[in-house]
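Request from the bench team (R.T.):
"We need a structural guess for the complex before ordering more magnesium ion. Sequence and SMILES attached. Just send the tokens back."

Command: build protein-magnesium ion structure.
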Amino acid sequence: MKPIEELTKQDIKNIKLIVFDVDGVLVSRGTKIKQVGNKTTFETKKVAKTQIEQIKKLNQLGYKINIASGRGLYMLQNMFREILPFVSLTYENGSATWFGGKLYQHVNSFNEIKKVQIELQKLKNKNIKGFEPKEFIITIHCKKRVKQIENIVNKYKRLYWIWNDEAYDVGVKKIQTKAVGLRKFISVLKLNKKNVLALGDNYNDKELLNQAGIGVSADASRLKGNFSVPLKGRYLPADLLMQRIIQINSKSKIPKSLKNPIASNERTKR
Ligand SMILES: [Mg+2]
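Reply to R.T.: structure attached below.
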């Protein structure tokens, strides 16, 4: 993997769509959730002003922006409220995409998950913090790994579970991945794999990065890509990537003759 500073104008010449994961990439990792009886409370994170401005800038430069998250639509809409005209939202690990007020459902998981959902909801374990409201996948926040959850899901051969250190995502193997969501959505936009650059940080981004012309990993210990950005530091991974793309474009927008006016004047004199 090359560091993002080595991304060049040549590398991104075909890129038309930039896909961002959310947690760990556009906001810091970690969802606070608490479930007591029938009451679930959780904190909504806000996308920072800087990232909102960067996304608008990328849009002005002609890039389409897609958000690909494991989160539910209601939450993504709140997080990206200010820039909804500039983004499309692919939610619940590729299950569906919201685009300009229209919904594109990519998979139907109802029959596959209806039984396991009821089984999981009956579980009693002090390490289970709560179920995040979802439409197509099941997300269970836990203090640490809960073997009972894994054992229950393992009985269903067609289902997967992914543990990401704060929650389990449960979904249908091969059809509920961010890659499927991306593949179906780029056909709506009439784009190809080579037109896509994707940035992710976690296990559920593996297929997404493989499905993109350029994959950027924000956590080398969990994910392989063509390029990498650091997970921790002064800037968020999405910030660093957007800085680089904006920088490459601003360089290329300056005509050669204007780059060094003194030098070109000198040449005319001669
Ligand atoms: Mg993430």
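Two things stood out. The two ends are 46 Å apart (CA to CA). The domain at 2-107+176-257 is CATH 3.40.50.1000 (Rossmann fold).
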